Amino acid sequence: MALWQAAARLDGIADNPRLEARLLLAHALGLTRNDLIRDPSRPVDPTAIDALLARRTAHEPLALIVGHREFWSMEFAVSPATLIPRPDSETLIEAALTAFTGRPPPGKMIDLGTGTGCLLLALLKEFPAAFGIGLDLGPDAAALAKANATRHGLANRSAFVAGDWTNSICGRFDLVIANPPYIPAHDIETLMPEVACHEPKRALDGGLDGYDAYRAIVPNLRHQLEPDGVAILELGVGQAKYVTGLARAAGLDVSLRLDLAKTPRAIILTWPNR
Asked: Both 123 and 224 in a single domain?
């Protein structure tokens, strides 16, 4: 009964009201979703679930309410200091695995704008001999990413730094990866309230036209990317053409990888004749 009532309250708020209701109930009870499925008649404190439902019906993201989100089959703690990991960003991990197929894996990696650390830590899981640096302008984000690294047993193969991505780290890397802010500033208020009101604008705002971060990152690859290295950047919808132009102007070769919706989601950059 509690599940159906919770799902009814989430109708029109959640894409999958029954699933979100089950996750909120499990969180209120301190259980996993599977625990709840095994014992659906377990009593529920209405006060606890009502408070969670009130937050969700006010368009607070589910991940912020329960405190975590899955990415690349790994669980990541989340907070208002970072973007919530999204399935589309897994396209970057797939692109990296493809880029290093049939050649030595990357030894040194850097994640520009690391947020939760999900991209870097997923890559460290896939490339077990690599060391990675996560860079984020926000100290709270860098601290959260470090905590996620510890949670996954990857703290000894990673370091997290609060600083600007163009001048905080010296050295060259075999893999540079980034999900930069790419929403045009004037479009942010038109996004769904879960994003516009609850995720950090610093991680969304790509400047007047959405390309400020790319204009900073791409030219700086001449200082950051090894001669045989690979850079992979996430793209917003419709941005492939412009970012491709930036990359070619910087002397880089370009390829694209599509997400599940067949949208160019990752741009893969290498130096010619690598």
From this structure: yes
Residue 151 backbone phi and psi in degrees, to 5: -60, -35
Contact in structure between 131 and 98 (CB atoms under 8 Å)? no
pTM of the model: 0.93
For 21-61, what is each residue's pLDDT tens digit? Answer: 889 988 888 877 676 666 666 666 677 789 999 999 999 99
Helix axes 118-126, 139-151, angle to 10 degrees: 30
> In sequence order, what are the beta bridge partners of 69?
76
Tell me the CATH number at 29: 1.10.8.10
* Measured distance CA(240)–CA(236) in Å, rounded: 8
d(CA 215, CA 71): 28
- Give the number of domains in the chain: 2
Does 83 lie in the same domain as 117? Answer: yes
